[in-house]
Each structure stands twice: as structure tokens, then as C-alpha cells.
Amino acid sequence: MSATGRFAPSPSGDLHIGNLRTALLAWLFARSSGRGFLVRIEDLDRVKEGAAERQLDDLRELGLNWDGQPARQTDRRALYDAAIDGLVTQGRTFECFCTRREILEAPSAPHRPPGAYPGTCHDLTPAERESRRVERNPAIRLRSDVETWTVRDLLHGEVTAGVDDLVLRRGDGVPAYNLAVVVDDGEQGVDQVVRGDDLLTSAPRQAYLAELLGIETPLYAHVPLALNTEGQRLAKRDGAVTYRELTERGIDVFATISGSLGLTGSTPEQLLDTFDPAALPHAPWTFAPPA
Ligand code: GLU
After folding, report:
1. Which atom belonging to ligand 1 lies closest to the Cα atom of 42?
2. 206 band by pLDDT with thresholds 50, 70 and 90
3. Residue-averaged pLDDT of the chain
4. Do residue 45 and residue 83 come from a single domain?
5. Sign of CA dihedral 221, 27, 37, 277
């Protein structure tokens, strides 16, 4: 498959109606442009027992289909390790011994965004690294040689964001999300990334990493998230928000989502007739769970 879109949920719990809306949009973007569509289970972290299967069931209930079996990131560790090892061999990485707390507490610098890596371990000597390795296993960080990177997004236009020395492999040996997502999209032929706009500011650093790995930058479309009636990001604690909860209360989830997008039809295929990426609402969607 040469051109494909994808939906890549983390199986940390049930999908809520906002996640399902993003999945439907990813499907519509892919299928309306003649692309394949993949589902990838991002289970390197934050896994809840049985959640992946429930997520797939809910996507099927919504009428979505995908090509082949969903890939699971935990089955693909060798790919991530090979990409990291390649960057290590090229001298593009360094070992980092900082804890999250040390990074947060590092003195701020004028050009460094809050939470960005302060560069503490960037220039450790071999002897310093040797002695630190006794205390803890290092994370592997990218030796980034740019401060910012720019991507084009179908909804947001040009987006520039900071690129720091991002983690490629955590101290516990688990490949980092940013690395895995870039390797997977490249390896799976994903050339169109449609996902929630909470990841918009991650796109530039992922595109930079793709460039270093010789992977073509995908087309991006970061779609608005669903909000609760207080204007916060919709979450499970907001009440009945999952496919099952809503269906039990007599709510037609598919009709609710397609209506929120201004589309008509009772299956995803039928929505393709009226789907126009240029006409998509850019504002977040407010969802009021039923009482
Ligand atoms: N697994 C990520 C999430 O559920 C999405 C990653 C992506 O779409 O790039 O938030």
C-alpha cells in the first residue's frame, strides 16, 4: 500500500465520543482521497487490560473499516530499536540521566519553552557518563541541531514549534512515543496524519525526526477536539461519553458525530458524498453528555 491514513489510539481506556469523531474524520480524510486506512494500537505505554479490543469493537460499531490487522507497537520493538541504533551510530544522540523532576526544576533560560530539556547531560564526559550509569539507566536523547521546525497542516496552515533534545528511548528501555509514531508512519506507508489538535505542537518535532530518519513528512490535519460544556477537553469523568454508555441511553452516536460535522448519511461511506475537508468546522465541538 503506497498511500494511507491511520487512526492510532492508545489503549488506556474506552474511546469517548470525541475520540470516535477523530477516528471517523481520519477515515473520511483517507477514504475520500483514495487512500488506505490503518488502525495502529499504540500500546507501548498506559495500557488497560482489554481496552484495545473494546476500542476496535467501538470503531466497528461506528461502521469504520480498515485494511489488514491492526498493528500493535509492542510487536514492533525491533523497528524502533533499529531506528534509534542508527541515530546512535551517526552520533546524533546522547545519554541523559536526568529525572523528570530535575528537568522541571532546572533554571529557566530565555529561549527555552517551559518543560523543554535544559541540556544538562548534553556534554557529559565519558568519565561522567561512566559514573552516572551506576546510578541509573540513561534515556537516549536526540542531539537536535535545530531550535524550531515548521510543518504545513491542512487546517492550521504553517505551524512552527520548538524542537528540543527529545527522548528517543526512555531510561526503562521503552521507545518514546515521538520516535515510535514516526518510525511506524514511515514503515507503514502513512502519508496522511489526521489526529486531535492536542498533538499539533508535536508535529514539527516529529517531522524533524522523520527528516533525520529519511522518512517523508506526511500531510497533517489536526482536527478540533471535543469539549465539555465548561469548555474543557471532554473526558470520561464528564458522564456518559463512550459508545456503549451513549447507545444504552438511546443516543445514536454515529448520527451525533456526523451531524456535528454537518454531514448527512447513515454509514461512513454515505458521508463521503458530502465530506469536504475545506468545509470542516475549525472550532472545537462542545458535547453535552445526557443526564
Ligand atoms: N496514540 C496517540 C493518542 O492516542 C495518538 C498518536 C498519533 O495519532 O500520532 O493520543
Report:
1. 1
2. very high
3. 95
4. no
5. negative
How far is the C-alpha of 122 from the C-alpha of 119, rounded, in Å?
5
CA of 122 to the centre of ligand 1 (A): 28
Residue 195 C-alpha from the chain's centroid: 7
**Measured distance CA(206)–CA(55) in Å, rounded:** 25
Q: Which residue has the higher pLDDT, 205 or 110?
A: 205
- 139 assigned to some structural domain: yes
Render pLDDT for 173-201 as a digit per residue (tens, 0 to 9): 999 999 999 999 999 999 999 999 999 99
Q: Is 236 a catalytic residue?
A: yes
Ligand 1 mutation target, pool 6, 185, 195, most atoms within 8 A of CB: 195
At residue 100, the pLDDT reads 87
Classify residue 194: in a domain, yes or no: no
**CA-to-CA distance for 74 and 45, rounded, in angstroms?**
9
Residue 260 confidence (pLDDT): 96
Q: Which three cell numbers stand for residue 162?
A: 520548538
What is the model's pTM?
0.95
Range of the domain at 242: 4-75+224-286
DSSP summary character for residue 231: S
Q: Within its chain, how far is the Cα of 52 from the centroid?
A: 16
Distances (CA, A) of 155 to 28, 152, 195, 200, 255: 15, 9, 11, 10, 24
